Amino acid sequence: MDCGGRRPSQGPAATVRCRQCSAGITAAPGARAVQCMQCSCVTRVRGQRLRPSQMMIPQPPPGFCGGRGKKRAVLIGIKYTGRRNCELRGPINDVKCMKYMLTERFGFPNDCVLILTDEERNPCRLPTKENIRMAMHWLVQGCSYGDSLVFQFSGMGAQVPDEDGDERDGMDEAICPMDSCQQGPILDDEINEAIVRPLVPGVKLHAIVDACHSGTVLDLPYLCTSKTGCWKWVDERPPTGVCKGTNGGQAVLISGSSNGKSRPVSIPDAYATMGAMTHSFIRAVECQPRATYASLLTSMKNTMREGAGNCNLQGPVGSSIRKVANFSGVEEPQLSSARVFDLTREPFCM
Q1: What is the predicted pLDDT for the residue at 314?
Q2: Are strands 113-117 and 148-154 parallel, antiparallel or unpaired?
Q3: What pLDDT score was predicted for residue 306?
Q4: What pLDDT does residue 318 have?
Q5: C-alpha pair distances (Å), 232 with each of 97, 199, 225, 273
Q6: Least confident piece of the model among 33-37, 149-153, 226-230, 283-287
Q7: Tens of pLDDT along 264-314?
Q8: Calpha distance 326→320 (Å, rounded)
Q9: Which of 1, 128, 202, 297 could form a disulfide with 145 if both were Cys (CB 3.0 to 4.6 A apart)?
Q10: What secondary structure letter does DSSP report for 112?
Q11: Residue 181 pLDDT > 50, yes or no?
Q12: What is the number of other CB atoms lying within 10 angstroms of the CB of residue 85?
């Protein structure tokens, strides 16, 4: 498939052994990691150690998306249809509910919300690795003071051993496109380079990621958790000193602390479902019109503790959803940010 974008530079193909099941995997040319089709484990492709500044983000083709308003969003939901033991129930509904919230609650124009799902008929709207790269570029391209940007991903996440020395836990996080078994996942280094570094003063990005191993998938320098009973900032800046922040703007990631156990959701097709992390986020926003970041996270945490159950979201999409499923294994919400701020005072707004 070729939607007309500029492709990243290509290198020779490589064959690697899956680090979990030892199956042989052929990595696409230039891929830094590859996902095993048998066990879904992600394995680093040795020798592919391009720094983020060397990566080429594909240019979106003309007409890739219509609007260029001050509020723009990229919403991605992937079911991985047909992939054995990996098919998810929920990501498509996550996207539909998020779009309804953004357009009805926060005033995002419909033509400024770009949706990529594996149910789309337009090949440029399928969540392939190349299309997701182009969508990220479209989101931040030409951003200016006053822009409010949203990036949502609902699907599979992964971890792979870090080779650059910029991860305190020694692991890179990644999101898995629908073709990750052929083209490989998108690592946090590239996501940071694509949608964090370009943010200029006065621009704010919110990323909502419902996937296992998604806690620090934007590689932001500061992490806030409540494992001690209160919300506390932790310095996550890389030991190497490499900059992982913005160009003056603000980036916030709302994700989850996961137990690392991604699993398929076995629910009959008659029951529409959505992900637990996304559900808790939208429900918290609906219940608190004037929430601070702290109250939003606390509300999300309380909803997650209630466990899977009825959805009870507003709007025509939410009313059709009957079940909530924790396909990402999220145990509690967490927030990471490009800068430290007072969560109890800062109002949440997209």
Answers
A1: 67
A2: unpaired
A3: 76
A4: 64
A5: 30, 25, 6, 32
A6: 226-230
A7: 444 444 456 888 889 899 989 988 888 999 999 999 988 888 765 566 776
A8: 18
A9: 202
A10: G
A11: yes
A12: 10
| CB within 8 Å of 112: residues ≥ 6 apart | 65, 66, 67, 68, 69, 71, 72, 73
Distance CA 256, CA 249 (A): 23
With contact defined as beta carbons under 8 Å apart, do 250 and 204 qualify? yes
255-264 CB burial, b ≥16 within 10 A, e <16: bbbbeeebee
Residue that has been written with the tokens 């097709």 in this structure: 269
Task: For residue range 325-343, list pLDDT tens digits in order.
Answer: 777 777 788 899 999 999 9
Say what angle helices 91-105 and 276-287 make with each other, to 10 degrees: 20
User: 11-37: string of b/e by CB count within 10 Å (b at 16+)?
Assistant: eeebebebeeeeeebebbebbbbbbbe
pLDDT band, residue 59 (cuts 50/70/90)? low
Token pair of 244, please? 């992982």
Residues in the chain: 350
Q: Is residue 260's pLDDT more than 60?
A: no
Burial of 167 (0-12, 13-18, 19+ CB in 10 A): buried
Where are any strands of DSSP class E within 18-70? Answer: 24-27, 33-35, 42-44
Written as six digits, the tokens of 43 are 């394995």
Q: Which of 75, 253, 70 is nearest to 173 (CA)?
A: 253
User: In angstroms, rounded to a whole number, what is the distance separating the alpha carbons of residues 79 and 89?
Assistant: 6
What pTM does this model have?
Answer: 0.88
Q: 3-state class of 326 per DSSP?
A: coil
Residue 233 has pLDDT above 50, yes or no: yes
Contact by Cβ (8 Å): 318, 347? no
The residue behind tokens 């699907």 is 155
CA 48 from chain center: how many Å? 23
Strand extents, DSSP E, 31-105: 33-35, 42-44, 71-77
pLDDT at 110: 94
